[in-house]
Amino acid sequence: MRLARGVSPWLFPTVAAAAVTTLLSRRDRRWALAAVPLTALTGGMLWFFRDPDRRSGEGRVLSPADGVVQSIDPWPDGRTRVAIFMSPLNVHVNRAPLAGTVTSVQHVAGGFLPAFNKDSDQNERVVWHFETALGDIEMVQIAGAVARRIVPYVNAGTKLAQTERIGLIRFGSRVDIYLPEGISPAVAVGEKTMAGVTRIDRG
Which one, 70, 78, 126, 200, has least CB within 10 Å? Predict the structure, then answer.
């Protein structure tokens, strides 16, 4: 099973602790009180940090994240924001919604409200801009109450293929993508999305 880049600070200490306590439990059964939950936690983290290969979907704009469409909002400048909520059970690796060049990757400090909270727009976040065939596309990775670390995989100036992996939000949260003026969303609130597979724009 492929694991996401950027998970070692979380995963390795847990794996090491599970291994050590499991070995110690063979000498003293009381160590099993620690070994069992640590082993279960290790299994859970392996699942959380999975990074499966995908067969790309078809469409001009594909979902950057696994999750559920939380909201679809018209923006004052004519764009449409599609917000995708990522639960701890979703794959946490995000992908490029279009082919293009990364023009900026900006980290913005903020709070850590639950991602479903209406005020989570002010959370810790990374704002991406891509120069694409459709013009400038903005995408925002938003941290939540549990996810306190966003890990970008690429820098400004990087040329990307559509669906290429661009970053990780540890333990989920939210990803917003802004569709340019004149492009309607092909998804609805409550619909499940799969990164690199689900078409976001209406053809």
Answer: 78
pTM of the model: 0.82
Q: What is the DSSP string of the chain?
A: --B-TT-HHHHHHHHHHHHHHHHHHTT-GGGHHHHHHHHHHHHHHHHHTB--------SSSB-SSSEEEEEEEE-TTS-EEEEEEE-TTS--EEE-SSSEEEEEEEEE--B---TTSGGGGGBSEEEEEEEETTEEEEEEEE--SS---EEE---TT-EE-TT-EEEEETT-EEEEEEEPTT--BS--TT-EE-TTTSB-B--
Condensed to tens digits (0 to 9), the pLDDT of residues 57-72 reads 999 999 999 999 999 9
pLDDT at 145: 60
Could you list the active site residues? 173
